[in-house]
């Protein structure tokens, strides 16, 4: 299991984070897939809470609102407690991220689009396999 700390979250070569440019409102901010760039390190603070995790991006905890993932600037008590499950068959640091209803994070088809929250597809193998758009690399920063 992951310990509380600073992490990067990727899907394949793309970075998962809030947009660098956002409106100034207090509305929930979209969590999106971004092109890889070495100019920025978009750090997540992952807080372990029992068997679940609060995922904070740029100071704001995340939640699913309907079928997408957002960062909450206000009403942060509404943050989702996520379960993060290792999927070692997909490599080191490979995980799926799920809510309590069994749905989970799914990367969109292209960079710039928002992380989707929906029922996960599980391959009928032992151990199970997952489509790569459901597998996220969570890398601890020292």
What does this structure look like?
With 142 residues, this protein is mostly beta strands. The protein has one domain (5-140): Trefoil (Acidic Fibroblast Growth Factor, subunit A) (Trefoil), CATH 2.80.10. The chain has strands at residues 5-11, 14-18, 29-34, 44-49, 52-57, 60-65, 68-71, 83-86, 94-98, 103-106, 116-119, 136-140. The mean pLDDT is 94. InterPro entries: Inhibitor_I66. GO terms for molecular function: serine-type endopeptidase inhibitor activity.
Could you say which overall geometry the principal axes of the C-alpha atoms support? globular
Class inferred from helices and paired strands: mainly beta
Radius of gyration, taken over Cα atoms and rounded to an integer in Å: 14 Å
The oligomeric state of the chains shown is: single chain
User: What is the terminal separation in angstroms?
Assistant: 17 Å
Name the CATH class: Mainly Beta
Total domain modules: 1
CATH architecture: Trefoil
Put simply, the count of helices is: 0
Strand ordering within the main sheet: 1-2-3-7-6-5-4
Query: Proportion of β residues?
Result: 35-45%
Mean pLDDT: 94
Order of helices and strands: EEEEEEEEEEEE
| Uncertain stretches of 5 or more adjacent residues | none
CATH topology: Trefoil (Acidic Fibroblast Growth Factor, subunit A)
Helix content: under 10%
Largest beta sheet, briefly? 7 strands, antiparallel, barrel
Would you count the extended β strands for me?
12
């Amino acid at each position: 299991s992951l310990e509380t700390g600073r992490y990067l979250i990727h899907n394949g070569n793309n970075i998962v984070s809030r947009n660098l440019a956002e409106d100034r409102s207090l509305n929930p901010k979209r969590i999106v897939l971004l092109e890889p760039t070495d100019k920025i390190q978009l750090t997540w603070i992952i807080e372990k809470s029992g068997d679940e995790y609060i995922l904070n991006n740029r100071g704001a905890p995340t939640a699913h609102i309907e079928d997408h993932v957002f960062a909450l600037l206000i009403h942060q008590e509404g943050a989702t407690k996520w379960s993060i499950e290792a999927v070692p068959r997909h490599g080191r640091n490979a995980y799926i991220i799920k809510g309590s209803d069994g749905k989970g994070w799914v990367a969109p088809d292209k960079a710039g689009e928002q992380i989707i929250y929906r029922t996960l597809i599980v391959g009928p193998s032992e151990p199970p396999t997952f489509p790569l758009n459901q597998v996220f690399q969570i890398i601890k920063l020292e």
